[in-house]
Records
---
Amino acid sequence: MKQIQLEYFIEVVEQNNFTKAAEKLFISQSALSKSIQSLEKELDTSLFTRDPRELKLTEEGRLVYHYAKDVLNYWHDRTAELFSSLNYKKGTLRFGLPPSAGSVYFSRVLYLYSKEYDHVDLQIFEEKSKKWS
């Protein structure tokens, strides 16, 4: 079981919708569905009752949801404590991306980075490559 799978699962539960969760996570619905199916296969249980009109957690899904929330909260709290203990400094990360590649290839990475390193000021510049020639 991977951290990202738990994050995806939590988002689906909280949005109560695969499409909305995928949009919020900046991934495709099919990638999200595959991740949840992989988690279900690994746990050998169904997490949702799939009805075209309504998405419901199974009893096992409720257990996994509470487990995932606890694990991720613990991880985030301990990580914050570690950075604090190391006197982690706030900083700025500046980088440039071509307009087309930036939104297509890096949106998920940027989203995860900003969640993980919320103390870092991300400054992203979208410029055409000819500007640097």
Note: The domain at 3-85 is CATH 1.10.10.10 (Arc Repressor Mutant, subunit A).
---
Amino acid sequence: MLLAGRNAIIYGGGGAIGGAMARAYGRAGARVFLAGRTPATLSAVASEIRAAGGSADTAVVDTLDEHAVEEHAAAVVAAAGRIDVAINVIADADVQGTPVLDMAVEDYLAPVVQSVRSKFITSRAAGRHMVRQGGGVLLFFGGAGDPPRDFHLGGLQAGFAAVEHLRRQLAVELGAHGVRVLTLRTGGVPEVIPADVPGRAAIEASITGQTLLGRPATLKDAGNLAVFAASDLARTLTGTALNMTCGAMLD
């Protein structure tokens, strides 16, 4: 198995994207540490991983609270010996559907401020342990891209772009310590769109229509790519984004 004997923290592991990655990590042999704010969803994912023969632990952690994140990272090291992989897929507090000129300043900045704070805090906590142990992988999910013409996403992509700069900076500063830093660049995963969202069919059609392959990435794709990125098969990759947009965004 690609991740046998490794320990992975997934912040937001109870959500759709985080859960898919957690299950994939469990299948690949990693011991998975699920962190988030909702005990019920974390426990549900952990139960699935254990039922499939994997190992999973859960912890309620607010990723905007640096002390809580630091304490959790230390607890993981105390329990497992090291942190090999850390990925933060906590949902951003974004306000969508409103044109920029009609938005409040706080609504536009919310996904920028909260996303950067959350990703910085979790990356710093895990990164400190990775530097001490001489290696590890920090993963981000999102990536920069052109604003869509059909939908108003507010400050969501501004937050993605800010996190991308954080990823580059971390890759430069931590590379000498054996720490790789990557983004899983998404063009949208329709499966995560709630069924009751107004215009859901149009959103899914837009995501699919922008791809070159005529199909969008799935949750299974996200999990599989997260496993690859964290494995030794990707040992030459750092400071870059792995494009899982099915051709919606060209490099």
Note: The chain is about 45% helix and 15% strand.
---
Amino acid sequence: MSAPRLPEELLHPQPAGLYCPAGDFYIDPVRPVARAMITHGHADHARAGHGTVWASPQTLDIMAIRYGESFCDTRIPVQDSTMVSGIKTCFTPAGHVLGSCQITVDDGDTAITVSGDYARVDNPACAPFQLAPCDVFVTEATFGLPVFNHPSPRAEINKLLRSVAAQPERCHLVGAYALGKAQRVIALLRQAGWDQPIYIHGALQRLCDYHIEQGVDLGDLRPATTKDGKAAFKGQIILGPPSAFAATWAQRFPEPVICFASGWMQVRARARQRGVELPLILSDHVDWSDLTRTIQELAPTQVWVTHGREDALVRWCELNQIAARPLRLVGYEEEAD
């Protein structure tokens, strides 16, 4: 009878990403590979050009929307779990964006959960986070410093609505990434009682349409075009991708209040660098308290940290008698939050 694999034998980093030799697949590889499992549709985790891709049905749809129908050779949708070359892989909601999942690799002796990106706060635009029990937890650490404790999403949305009410002669331009953040801001606005039209940049349209198809209530969305004149946008809320704010697009609107929805808006210097008048601290990643709470609740024997503030989290684990190490993976961006 063969000895159980060490965790490092079941899953370990290679230049292309985290690799499972027994199953001969990668998780969120940063370059094209023959067999890939994808946690979610953001471009730093989901790339085109793979052979076979396993992912949630929604993530596969999102990749097709972003990259075209031929983004890979073969798509295999996974609802809950599947077997690949004798390795059981389970897909558990990550609470990050629509379709996002943690992927647990289990050979019968050891279970390793790769979180991808995850969040544990109110997000009406995707399924909520669920704990995925494991022996080894592979976690991000985007906001892996004690200083990052984000306010409640509802409080930030109410801050936006108070500003709109106080400045009816101006419009509010909200920078929000096209996948996940834009739809979450819109859905939170609807939950808060904003029943007026919300105007969106054309780059957000297709992914917003897909969220609506998937049952996410985004209400009345309209194109953010100024064919009716600037005055039509007074007192209105307009969403666009952050890239559009560096172009002439933002200058089309009446005295815009520039807003940006991101966990990084807790860092005032970043808000100033972007010329943000109204920072909205809305993150789709765990902050320090939720990050450490997740580890405590999972109680894994080991923690591997993939990207972000690796050293601080490794040190916290050591102080709490949890074995931990940084993986030093490259190719995952921290800005898209």
Note: The chain has two domains: 7-147+285-326, 153-280.
